C-alpha cells in the first residue's frame, strides 16, 4: 500500500515555513453513511459540519463508577513508577496522564473495544479501525493547568507520520464538566482547514510537549480568525458523557482553580487505511505508547 | 475614634496560626436601609445573602467606549514607565494593572465618583465613603493568568490595617464576559465567614503578591467546604455591567486561552467609619497606591 511507504506526499506540511499557512482539508470528514452504523443523518451532518458529537449518557452510572475506581487504582499503582508512559505535571510529581491503558488495564481495554464506541467510530471513518493512542487524564482541582489550542492531527502527522485526516478521538468524562472547571473548548468547523505551525520540531519533543507544548502551536492571528468565523463550543457533558471529535479540530482548555477535578478516558482511533508512515518531520518515531504501530 | 488607633483589637487574625480558622463575621453586610439609596429591598437582601450584586447596564455603550479608549491610552502612556503603581505580568513586560486611576486619570476619576456607583455604595455601607484603592486591569487573551481564590479583606486587614468588614469593591466590565474567558467566580455566602490563612507575611510582600499571591492564600480544605455549601457563581456581565461585591467574599478567576481579552475598572470603597489603622501584620504600611490614607 502506498500509504505505508515513506515516500508519501506531504499534503499537510507544518513546522517548515516561517509563516503559518491555511491549507484546505483534502480529506472527507465523514467516510461512512447512515447505513454503516448507529448514527443517523442528523448526527452525521452535525459531525461533518462541526467536527464533533457529544452523547450525554453512553455509559451508565455503574460503568462510570467502575472506570473511576480503575483510574484511582491506576493512580495509586503508578504513584512512584518511572515508566515513560506515566506523565507527570510540570515541576511536580503529580501524575497527569497514564498512556496505553487499552493494553495495560483490563477495564479500559474493555471500554476501548466497546461496541457503543467502536460502531460509531467505524461509521464515521468508513472502515475498520485501530487504536492509535489511549490514556487516562486527571486534571486536578485548584491547580489544573491549561491545554493551549492545538490540532491533534498536526502533531500526529508531523511527529508520528499519520498521512491523512481519517482519525478521531473519543473522550469519556469521568466527572461532571462545568463551565468553570476547565472543560474542553472546541472551535466548531475548524477541522475543515489545516493550519500549519511555525518552528522546527526538536529531537524527542514528546518528552516535554506532553507537559507543555512549545512546537506545533498555532499562531494567535489564525486562532483569532477561526474564533471570529466559528465561535467557541464547550463540551459540558456530565460524567459518563462521550465526546467524539475529529483529529483536526482546533481545541484546548483553560486551567481550573475550582475544587472540581476533571478526569477522563481518551482513546484515539485511526482508520486501517491510514496506517502510519515515517514522521513527516524527518525525525525519529515517537514511542508506541504515543503512536501504536503494528509493523 | 477608637478605630484609628493602633491598639485596635484584631477581630480577624490571619497568617499567625499554623492551621486555618473559620471566624464568624462580626460585622453587618448591609449597613443602610431601603430609604438610604436606589437599591430596593430585594437587592439589599440578595447582597446580604450572597455578598454581591450585578447590574447589567449601569453605563451606556458610549460611556464604555470612552473608558476603553482611556484604558488604551493609559496602556500606551505607561508602556515603558517604571512607576511602582504600574504592575506587569510575571516574567513579562506586559502591563497587568495600573493603580490609582481615580487620582491620575480624569476619565476614571469621574467614574469613581459617579453617583450611580457612589449612591449604591453609600447605601450598602451606611455612611460616607472614601476610595481605598482603584485600578484598571487588563487580562489578555491567549495567555491570561488565573487569580487564585482570595478574600480581599484578608489582605486589606493584615497588610493595610483595615479594621472591620465595611468596604466593598466595584468592578466595571469593559469587555463582554463569557464563561470561557476567565470571568470572575464568586462563592456566594462565603462573606459570612472569615477564613484565616496560614503562614507569616514577608516584608514588602506586595511587590510580588500583585503578580502571584503566595501568602494570604486560603487552604484547599476550606475552599472545598465553602464550595460544597454554597456553589460557585460566575459574573457573566456584558461590557458596561457593574459588579458590587463584599470585601470578604471569596473570589477568583481562571486563566484565559481564548482570543477574548478581559479588561475592567476596579474601585474599592471603604466607610469613613472604618479608617485604616496600623497593619495587623505588624509590618510597614503598603504604599498609598494600594491603600489610600488621608492621615
TrEMBL record, chains A, B:
InterPro entries: EctD, Phytyl_CoA_dOase-like. One of its GO terms (molecular function) is 2-oxoglutarate-dependent dioxygenase activity. Keywords: Dioxygenase, Iron, Metal-binding, Oxidoreductase. The lineage of its organism: Bacteria, Bacillati, Bacillota, Bacilli, Bacillales. This is Ectoine hydroxylase. It catalyses: L-ectoine + 2-oxoglutarate + O2 = 5-hydroxyectoine + succinate + CO2. Involved in the biosynthesis of 5-hydroxyectoine, called compatible solute, which helps organisms to survive extreme osmotic stress by acting as a highly soluble organic osmolyte. Catalyzes the 2-oxoglutarate-dependent selective hydroxylation of L-ectoine to yield (4S,5S)-5-hydroxyectoine. Its cofactor is Fe(2+). PANTHER family: ECTOINE DIOXYGENASE, PHYTANOYL-COA DIOXYGENASE DOMAIN CONTAINING 1. It comes from Candidatus Carbonibacillus altaicus. Pfam families: PhyH. Belongs to the PhyH family. EctD subfamily. Its EC number is 1.14.11.55. The keyword Nucleotide-binding does not apply. It is an enzyme of class 1 (oxidoreductase). The keyword Iron applies. Homodimer.
Amino acid at each position: 500500500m502506498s500509504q505505508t511507504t515513506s515516500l508519501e506526499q506531504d499534503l499537510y506540511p507544518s513546522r517548515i515555513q516561517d509563516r503559518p499557512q491555511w491549507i484546505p482539508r483534502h480529506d472527507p470528514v465523514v467516510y461512512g453513511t447512515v447505513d454503516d452504523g448507529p448514527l443517523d443523518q442528523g448526527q452525521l451532518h452535525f459531525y461533518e459540519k462541526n467536527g464533533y458529537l457529544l452523547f450525554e449518557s453512553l455509559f451508565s452510572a455503574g460503568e462510570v463508577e467502575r472506570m473511576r475506581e480503575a483510574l484511582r487504582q491506576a493512580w495509586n499503582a503508578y504513584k512512584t513508577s518511572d515508566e515513560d508512559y506515566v506523565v507527570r505535571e510540570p515541576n511536580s510529581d503529580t501524575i497527569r496522564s497514564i498512556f496505553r491503558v487499552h493494553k495495560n488495564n483490563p477495564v479500559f481495554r474493555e471500554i476501548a473495544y466497546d461496541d457503543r464506541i467502536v460502531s460509531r467510530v467505524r461509521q464515521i471513518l468508513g472502515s475498520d479501525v485501530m487504536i492509535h493512542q489511549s490514556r487516562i487524564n486527571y486534571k486536578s482541582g485548584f491547580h489544573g493547568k491549561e491545554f493551549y489550542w492545538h490540532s491533534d492531527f498536526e502533531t500526529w502527522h508531523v511527529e508520528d507520520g499519520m498521512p491523512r485526516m481519517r482519525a478521531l478521538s473519543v473522550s469519556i468524562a469521568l466527572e461532571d464538566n462545568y463551565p468553570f472547571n476547565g472543560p474542553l473548548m472546541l472551535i466548531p468547523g475548524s477541522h475543515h482547514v489545516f493550519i500549519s505551525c511555525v518552528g522546527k520540531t526538536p529531537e524527542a519533543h514528546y518528552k516535554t510537549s506532553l507537559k507543555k507544548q512549545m512546537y506545533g502551536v498555532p499562531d494567535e492571528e489564525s486562532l483569532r480568525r477561526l474564533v471570529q468565523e466559528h465561535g467557541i463550543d464547550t463540551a459540558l457533558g456530565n460524567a459518563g458523557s462521550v465526546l467524539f471529535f475529529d483529529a483536526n479540530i482546533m481545541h484546548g482548555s483553560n486551567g481550573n482553580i475550582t475544587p472540581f477535578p476533571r478526569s477522563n478516558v481518551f482513546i484515539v482511533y485511526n482508520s486501517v487505511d491510514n496506517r502510519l508512515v515515517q514522521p513527516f518531520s524527518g525525525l525519529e518515531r515517537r514511542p508506541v505508547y504515543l503512536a501504536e504501530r503494528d509493523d
